[in-house]
Amino acid sequence: MCLVTLVIGITSCSKELVYKNMPGIYIDKEKLTARDSTAYSFAEKSAALMLDTIYIPIKISGEMSNTDRAVPLQANAARTNAIAGTHYQILSSVVKANELTARAAVLVKRTPDLKTRQLRILLEIVPSADFPLTITNTKTNSTYNGEPSASYNPGYLIKLTDQLLKPDTWDGSGSWFKYYFGAYSAVKFKFIIEVTGRTVWGDRARYGPDAPTSAELQIYYTKLITALYEYEKINGPMIDETGNQVTFPKL
Amino acid sequence: MKTYRQAILGISVVCLMLFSCNKDKGNYDLKPIHEIVVDQLNDGKEIEILSGDVLKLTPGVKQENTTNGTYKYRWYMYGDNYTPAIELSDKKDLDIKITAPIGGYTLMYVVTDVSTGITSTQQRHMTITSKYASGLLVLDEKASGGDISQISLNGDIYKDLYSAANGGNHITTPGSKLVGFFYKRGLDIQKPIFIFISSPGKNTVEIDPESYKESGAFSSLLATPPQSPVQLSDITGMSSGDPVYAIVNGKLQFSTGGTSTPLFQGALLGDYDLAPYIITTTAGGRENIPSQTYLITYDQKNGRFLWFAGFNVGSFNTYSTDMTNPGAFDPNNIKKQCVFSCYSNQYAYYNWLMKDAAGKMYFYQMFPISTQKAASVYLEITAAPEMSQATIFAGSTKLPQIYYVADNRIYLYDYKANSARMIYTFAAGEQITDMKFAVGRVPAYETEYRVLRTLDKIYIATYNGTEGKVNEFDVSATGDIGTPVKTYGGFGKITSMFYKEKR
Fold first, then answer.
1. Do B313 and A229 touch (CB under 8 A)?
2. Which of A97, A155, B125, B247 is deepest in the core (most CB within 10 A)?
3. Domain limits at B445?
4. What is the distance in angstroms between the Cα of B313 and the nearest Cα belonging to chain A?
5. What are phi and psi of B186, to 5 degrees?
6. What angle separates helix A214-235 from helix A186-196, to the nearest 10 degrees?
7. Residue at A209 is within a domain
8. How many angstroms separate the CA of residue B266 from the nearest CA in chain A?
9. Which residues contact A228 (CB under 8 A, 6 or more apart)?
10. Mutate to test the interface with A, among B264, B313, B316 (most CBs of A within 10 A)
11. Where are the beta strands (DSSP E) in B114-237?
């Protein structure tokens, strides 16, 4: 008993441990549905939309500051073939004083060449005076056996086009794309957009303000199988770009 | 060890003594809250009121130790299925005309002391009824046009309700029909019965089931309406589950249901043109029918039965062509015109009357599976006088019998005996224009989950060239109808009747 008391006493007199702040900043991939990249297509948007903004969630490591700090987001020149100013513009953004998170804004522009090609913008955080610490990767909040279940690469790729692309989340878990429409093909997706008149689908056609309701999806599904039935009566099977027949699941 | 325990105990006692000397700094300067006391509504009794009547309630409100308090009042009610609140009044006493749909409600009265926020609440269950809630709807045609009257279950007659509710307008003549069904999810908005007027060459319209005011085009219930005129010929729900089916312009429209007003997603796919009868099936809650089909219809275009099972629009199905285990007939190869269909006296068997090109009549009975064994009974009808001329039929769900009409004569066809006999003749010159059973439409275990069950009354409309009459008969245990127990006159030519069961 005396020994324990002695140890406690000695420890309490030792010098305080000092935390040295080394601020860092990273893209908060926990907030992104598609963790490492997004395919952005103006073809899925209104024909009148010439500019749009993609927001990148940002988070800091280290202590909050009592002043605003610029987000050091840049495009990796070697791995980016979109032209700054022509196809995109990284807008100035800050982590506000006494805040841990921010949103960096990337302006993307609808140019004629996007009709025939897909361009890449690889965004990266670079060390700065405000954020000298380089964070090479981040880890998930979710854990497995006490360890983070995954880690993320530091960059974020925007694939920019005005062509119809496969929605990133088509095959995602719980995707209503997959449930109502089945396997993706470009021919099928074009048919879906023509029949439904809908170009914006949101995350997995299920989540977020851009997603259709389940009642809307049931109506879309009905319109699609009816339109395909009518198409096939006149033209025979609809064949996609891979030579497969376009079909919809039997629900 | 003993010494150690004593030391711990001693320290604990000292600590307790020290805390017991601590001054209690709590504020116990309590004041009475002056509760509000409100009299029970309607002296604590259930409130029953007719739709359209004025509800007056003047409950006493007192507050302890207060004489001139300032209060806020709120009267509101919500339906038995927790429908959104209906605000009624912000006055102390209630004096309001009740216009909500008929059904059960909870009436709430909340009194709030403005200065303290103290509230007191009283509630009472209330049933709104209507003299139009139940009875027989009669659509008749006069020189001025079509109209709807109602014969209530106590025999009171309310004439020309449609024109009264629709600014003096009348229903298109000739040949308009009343079509309706029970929709369980409609209870969410106190509207379990939907009624429509289907007129030849015109778009079908919906009418309010109590006021008979037109409430809109039937096509508004269709996500993709067909080309106008949009004509409804039959509509029914499932015996269990939410889906609703409707035959519109010969195609079967499907709704997943699930909402208080059904929205039809679209028509089932295929090359078909349906006879105006939908049979939704049941296993009665008493057996398991493997791979049960939910629905049976008849394709007039191709002379075959079609079935469907599912919860989304898909292709209409023909029956299996595997003939290794044949039924009484091939459901894919009937090649006759359907003249009538009805539920039978057995919950899982469904009756169809067919006529061939030569005018010969046939009886078919179907079971709800997709194989050839769905074909249960096939009869050539040889002993049913005048049946081939009949256009008005009514099937019993209590006995294996179908009533049919020829001019002023009523016959009763027994499909177990495969023969018919005449059971009543009206006076010469009285033409029978419609015939409907009193029916129950609420599927439940007790009713073997049938979507339609005939009761012990049958109504037969006649017209002698100047006056239409409704003749009410009691149906005996043998199916005989005797003579009319009541006759209601003064109508024009009655073209359609619809029975609303008691709510």
1. no
2. B247
3. 132-161+388-503
4. 6
5. -65, -20
6. 110
7. yes
8. 6
9. A191, A238, A246, A247, A248
10. B313
11. 119-129, 135-142, 145-151, 157-158, 177-182, 193-198, 205-207, 214-217, 232-237
Looking at chain B, the whole-number percentage of residues with pLDDT higher than 90 is 83
CA torsion, ordered B464, B465, B466, B468, to nearest 10 deg = 50
Cβ atoms of B71 and B112 closer than 8 Å:
yes
Q: Quick: pLDDT tens for A106-156.
A: 999 999 999 999 999 999 999 999 999 878 777 777 777 777 777 777 899
Is B102 inside a domain boundary? yes
DSSP B45-100: PPEEEETTSEEEE---EEETTBSS--EEEEEEEEETT-PPPEEEESSSSEEEE--S
When the pLDDT of each residue in chain A is averaged and rounded to a whole number, the result is 88
Q: Which residue of A has its CA nearest to B258?
A: A215
In this structure, what token pair is assigned to residue A27? 């893209």
Confidence (pLDDT) at A248: 97
Do residues B253 and B226 lie in contact, with contact meaning Cβ atoms separated by under 8 Å?
Answer: no
Q: What are the tokens at B359? A: 């005018």
Q: DSSP secondary-structure letter at A141?
A: S
B312 → closest Cβ in A218, A223, A229? A218
CB contact under 8 A, B265 and A219: yes
Name the DSSP letter for residue A124: E
Residues of chain B positioned with their CB less than 8 A from the CB of A180:
none
| Within-domain flag for B111 | yes
> Both A150 and A31 in a single domain?
yes
Measured torsion, CA atoms of residues A4, A9, A14, A18, in degrees rounded to the nearest 10: 80
Same domain, B62 and B142: no
Same domain? For B481 and B403 the reply is yes
Structural domain for A181, as ranges: 166-251
Q: How many CB pairs under 8 A join A and B?
A: 39
Contact map slice: B 379-398 vs A, CB within 8 A: none
For residue B48, the domain's CATH number is 2.60.40.10
pLDDT value for A2: 44
In 3D space, the residue among B443, B430, B447 whose CA is nearest the CA of residue B484 turns out to be: B430
pLDDT tens-digit readout, B393-440: 999 999 999 999 999 999 999 999 999 999 999 999 999 999 999 999
3-state secondary structure of A123: strand
Give the three-class secondary structure for A239.
strand
Whether B366 maps to a domain, the answer reads no
Q: Based on the fold, state whether residues B49 and B137 are members of the same structural domain.
A: no
**What is the distance between the alpha carbons of residues B112 and B432, in angstroms, rounded to a whole number?**
63
Which is more confidently placed, B134 or B240?
A: B134
